[in-house]
């Protein structure tokens, strides 16, 4: 049986854009949220991170910013966002983030159906989240869309058919997505492990290998050329 990565690579020219514009044609900021970015390392709250990102986007006339897959993010360790101070911090990012304004439309890159959805409204979580089930070459996998608007969860239901290119959501504002800067968290998942409407988007370094295997690089679908350089 082929693995998911090879199947997605084979079909990567067939996927439509997730954003309502071609990111590859825009002025894009590859934001570094690891501890090698000293400016980010000094930020002690999501609110300060929001201000930093918006300042950089405006000052440099970026259309959008991209946050990396597999990145070890200092902001999560600094704030114990997901775990207590005495626990190993979850800091390995399992998706790709695309920063844009609240209300920006989000589209499905291929046909599928709604697997599950939820408003994960606890501190540090995704806020409104939609998970769509897809199948290619008899391989079932899932795409998670996090940090959406509350209105994105209206008029949807488990099993609802989704067409390729269909708008499925809009980005949430700072309050809706649990005090994170407005952005899309986009993640591929092979095995949902019986979870509904939620799946970890950040892993402990000690569990990195398992989660990066279960959540392959989203650029296999997004096809963002700037991430391949």
From TrEMBL:
Domain M23ase beta-sheet core stretches: 92-194
Domain of life of the native organism: Bacteria
GO function terms (MF aspect): metalloendopeptidase activity
CDD domains, sorted: M23_peptidase
Pfam family, one: Peptidase_M23
Protein name: Peptidoglycan DD-metalloendopeptidase family protein
Species of origin: Fulvivirga sediminis
């Amino acid at each position: 049986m082929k693995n998911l990565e090879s199947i997605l690579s084979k079909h990567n020219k067939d996927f439509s854009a997730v954003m309502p514009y071609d990111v590859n044609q825009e002025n894009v900021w590859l934001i570094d949220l690891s501890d090698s970015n000293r400016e980010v390392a000094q930020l002690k709250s999501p609110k300060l991170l929001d201000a930093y990102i918006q300042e950089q986007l405006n000052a440099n006339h970026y259309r959008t910013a991209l946050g990396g897959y597999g990145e070890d993010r200092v902001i999560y360790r600094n704030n114990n966002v997901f775990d207590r101070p005495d626990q190993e911090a979850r800091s390995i990012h399992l998706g790709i983030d695309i920063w844009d304004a609240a209300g920006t439309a989000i589209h499905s890159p291929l046909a599928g159906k709604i697997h599950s959805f939820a408003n994960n409204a606890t501190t540090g979580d995704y806020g409104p989240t939609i998970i769509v089930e897809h199948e290619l070459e008899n391989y079932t996998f899932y795409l998670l869309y996090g940090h959406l608007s509350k209105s994105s969860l209206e008029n949807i239901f488990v099993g609802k058919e989704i067409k390729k290119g269909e708008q499925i959501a809009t980005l949430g504002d700072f309050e809706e997505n649990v005090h994170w800067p407005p952005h899309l968290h986009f993640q591929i998942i092979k095995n949902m492990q019986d979870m509904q409407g939620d799946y970890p988007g950040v892993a402990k370094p000690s569990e990195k290998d398992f989660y990066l295997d279960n959540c392959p690089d989203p650029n296999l679908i997004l096809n963002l050329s700037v991430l391949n350089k």
